[in-house]
Amino acid sequence: MSMWTNSSDASEFVSSENGTYGPSDEPALVCAEAAFDQAFHYWRGASGRRYLHSVYSLVGCPALPQANFILVRRHDDGSREALAFGNTKDDAMSLNLARLRHEGAKIGANEVHIHLLADTARARRFVEADLTAAHLHQPATSEAA
Question: To pair with 131 at 20 to 30 A between CA atoms, which of 48, 63, 80, 87?
């Protein structure tokens, strides 16, 4: 373990062959002086890469272009549980949103985390596979995915 972890925290970290990469998910303090309540969040893939996500409530999520998403259950204590990983595939942004909200409601998500930095279909598939391997060990089955 590194100096900032102990064995009781190990389940919260993604490991590598040479040790740990760090927390598997963590708030992103992108703009600490802004009046946002954790508007950004990092999720770490099996590769050790961190992916910056914008955080929205399930009902507050805007229509979105082709992007990666995580459907998340945020618990009363503030902890987050990733329920499904995927990427939107439609050119129609409102259709992506409708499918995302439908799938999120079916599985009990109350947050949507959106990663917009993967700019090709291939890059989005890689991000989805990397995050899924680290957190769920199975791909999202949604049509939005």
Answer: 63
What gap in Å lies between CA 59 and CA 15, rounded to an integer? 34
CB-CB contact of 103 with 84 (8 Å): yes
Q: How far apart are CA 104 and CA 110, in angstroms?
A: 7
Of 20, 28, 47, whose CA–CA distance to 128 is shortest?
Answer: 47
Answer whether 51's CB lies under 8 Å from 131's CB.
Answer: yes
Q: Please check the confidence at residue 33 and state whether its pLDDT lies above 90.
A: no
Could you read off the pLDDT of 42-91 as tens digits, one per residue? 999 999 999 999 999 999 999 999 999 999 999 999 899 999 999 999 99
pTM: 0.72
Q: How far is residue 69's CA from residue 67's CA, in Å, rounded to a whole number? A: 7
Q: What's the burial of 93, exposed, middle or buried (CB within 10 Å: 0-12/13-18/19+)? A: middle
| DSSP summary character for residue 66 | S
- Among residues 55, 95, 96, which one has the least CA distance to residue 73? 55
